[in-house]
Amino acid sequence: MEASCSACGPGYKTPLDAMKAPQEDLIYVSCIYNSTGINKPDYLSTVDVDPKSPTYSEIIHRLPMPNMNDELHHLGWNACSSCYTDPTKKRDRLVLLGLISSRIYIVDVGTDPRAPKLHKAVEPTEVYTKSNQAYLHSLHCLGSGEVMISSAGDPSGKPKGGFVLLDGETFEVKGAWEKEGHAAPFGYDFWYQPRHNAMISSEWGTPKNMFAGYKQDDVNKGMYGHSIHVWDWNKHTRIQTLDLGEDGSIPMEVKFLHNPEATEGFVGCSRGSSVFRFYKTQKGDWAAERVIKVPNKKVEGWAMPEMPSLITSIVISMDDQYLFFSNWLHGDVRQYDISNTSKPKLVGQVWIGAGIAKGGPVTVVHDEELKCQPEPLILKGKKIQGGPQMIQLSFDGKRLYCTTSLLSFWDKQFYPEMVKEGAAMLQIDVDTEKGGLTINKDFLIDFGKEPSGPSLAHDMRLSGGDCSSDIWI
């Protein structure tokens, strides 16, 4: 499913070329048993998303990991469009990260894409000793052929926003990417833009607090971040910190526009229920402005009198026309036209979660946006528990996939019924002309029906690439 060119490597020459790619036929999903009460290892599931296939909308393969208690979280490719000019590179390995264990799994998806197999496991001791990083979160493939991974802490459990560099051939840990003394106070996600010698990283929180469940007190005590960081891409140094304030509390996923010439992007701030635009100024430094704010809902029957939306995942279409994000607690997915990046316009919205659904434990007593609580979503006889969490968009921008698990510890706290009944994976059809979102009623992966018991589904990677995996240099 790569570009047909005997002299080129993986991916596509430009983002607009990627939009013409063949439709994805498989999706790889990280599935978690950690902290659910089921004594099984986490696993990678392979989902058939080809509408012409007899096994469409089914899990066709499961690859269990060889260890327990990994908390598989994000996954990514060994190579992408950043290696397009290198014919020696192939997009044939998935890199899976254990958030709790700090273990790295390399999975062969090239030999048989429908039945992946484990290629290698990088043990946490190697990560600790060679990089002094732990609690691994996000990753990107680099133009050098290496793989770069962000960390949320150090081996002792203290917060630390650093990066691990993997050899793209042997998958051995090469060391820390950042210069000594330049790690950020907190770590989470990152995105680089080499034509402008820039990288932006975001912040989550202190590992021991995150894994003990969310507490507003921890936010008040400074256990979670509220800044994004600007890095000199060539020197590997942190050169600027942008404090986003209360509205920018817990900035999570960060995305540059796909155009490699762009000097702007967006970050979704979960606790602040806001989206900030970051951009390079005429002076040459960087700034940020809030461009979207989702109002809190005043509620009864919940942990606090006001419920934030908890923006957890964002993605930008390949043509940089639309921004999508998920509100994990409120339960909706939104689509914004970002033709004017300073003034995004809401053009699509669907409700798929149990957060404020009618008939649930939460009663909304005041809502600035809705006149009544949305109906619960029932697909193929299953009432969807949890809220929309990870989202991934197809290259052509027409299919948005969504899973409902955030982190097993937070799932148990906010959506205990989802832990009992299993997570779900859905497909949302996107109107790419006028904007608009529609749930595909023919597609559902019910992780409550797994052979070993209900599991939690988190991150996804689409075969051939998606709008969160490819960077152009």
UniProtKB/TrEMBL annotation:
Pathway: Organosulfur degradation. GO terms for biological process: protein transport. Its EC number is 1.8.3.4. It is an enzyme of class 1 (oxidoreductase). It is a peripheral membrane protein. Catalyzes the oxidation of methanethiol, an organosulfur compound known to be produced in substantial amounts by gut bacteria. Selenium-binding protein which may be involved in the sensing of reactive xenobiotics in the cytoplasm. May be involved in intra-Golgi protein transport. This is Methanethiol oxidase.
